[in-house]
Amino acid sequence: MFDTLYCHIGAHKTATTSIQKSLMASKDALARHNFWFVPDRGGVLAHFADNPMRVYPDMVRRRGLAYMDGWGQRAVDVMTVASERGGAAIFSTEEALFLRSEEIGRMAAFFGRISRKVVVLYYVRHPLSRLPSMLTEMVKSAGATIDTPLERSLEDYEQVLSPWIAAFGRQAVQVRPFHPSLWPKGGPVAEFCGAIGDDSLFAELTVVRTNEGLSQGALLIKSAMNARGGDLSHNKPLLDLLASIGGPKASVPRERLEALAPLIERNLAYLRETFGVELPEPELQDHVVDRNVIFDDKTLADIGAALKAALDEQADLREKLRRARQRNRKLRDQAAG
């Protein structure tokens, strides 16, 4: 059995991807410190989800449910075999938050069979810091606009954590503040090493930084493009272009954040009362109130339209090329036959 299994469940905008990629890039260092990073976390979730479509809709559409069943079984089999080596395991995935109570319960029972101890790690970032970052991410990667209601991204900590407490027990669930003033030298990855009980591990890790934000100007351009429809969120040339646009960091008007004060306080109170966690309130960065300081509305609309048209044309050409290659393959096959 594993001595300890660390189940890291995020949350969003708390450097989860950076932590995961740093661990994946440092397998030898982990092995020297007697840690095993679970490679196929998605398969484990698919195994315990009643409906994998809810957790991995794109993969289900591409591969089908039969594939998901096999993938899930292979993933739990690999974990079971690995547990026989002992040591500690790290299971890290934000998608675990999509599981329902009964699914978390089944996963907890499995973890209990392969590990003597399970620790659930959940990072919390003050909403006044997290909400602007979430809005930027939704505009950048999910087709949203800057007018998207912020309350959609406000975490309800009690709702999120209650199923994990029910499945693993209150003492197994560790809530850790995500705030620069509380990090050791080395940032969130170094903090994670402390969370799994081995501060010395950080010095041997290959740290990977990910998911840089956008400037306010880049945010406005992407928002204008999103308003015209179409999914360009994974177009690398576009994302590289947006990342290169300088200027003030993307922000949210103070009044939009202040309007959520009662909901924010309720969530912070839950953390204080249940876990004794007090999140330092961040300083709100100055927001450019008049966005026309950056772009006038017509220029913004023109930039968004021009970029979208160019990218649509690029996508159309790629599709025509794909079809031409497909036709050529068929002709070659027919000629060979």
Compact summary:
This protein has 337 residues and is an alpha/beta fold.
Structure description:
The protein has 337 residues and is α/β, with parallel strands linked by helices. The chain folds into two domains: 4-125 and 153-204, Rossmann fold; 216-269 and 283-336, no CATH class. The protein is built from 15 helices and five strands. The protein has helices at residues 16-24, 27-32, 41-48, 52-55, 57-63, 65-83, 101-114, 127-141, 157-168, 187-195, 216-227, 236-243, 254-258, 261-275, 297-336; strands spanning 4-8, 35-37, 88-92, 118-124, 173-177. A five-stranded parallel beta sheet has the order 2-3-1-4-5. It is globular, with a radius of gyration of 23 Å. The model has no long low-confidence stretch (mean pLDDT 89).
Order of helices and strands: EHHEHHHHEHEHHEHHHHHH
- Give me the number of helical elements: 15
Sequence of strands across the biggest β-sheet: 2-3-1-4-5
Span between termini: 56 Å
Task: Note the quaternary state here.
Answer: single chain
Mean pLDDT: 89
Structural domain count: 2
CATH architecture of the largest domain: 3-Layer(aba) Sandwich
Write down the CATH class of the largest domain: Alpha Beta
Q: In which range does the helix fraction lie?
A: 40-55%
Q: C-alpha Rg, in Å?
A: 23 Å
Apparent shape: globular
Using DSSP, what is the number of strands? 5
* Regions with little confidence, pLDDT below 50 for 5+ residues: none
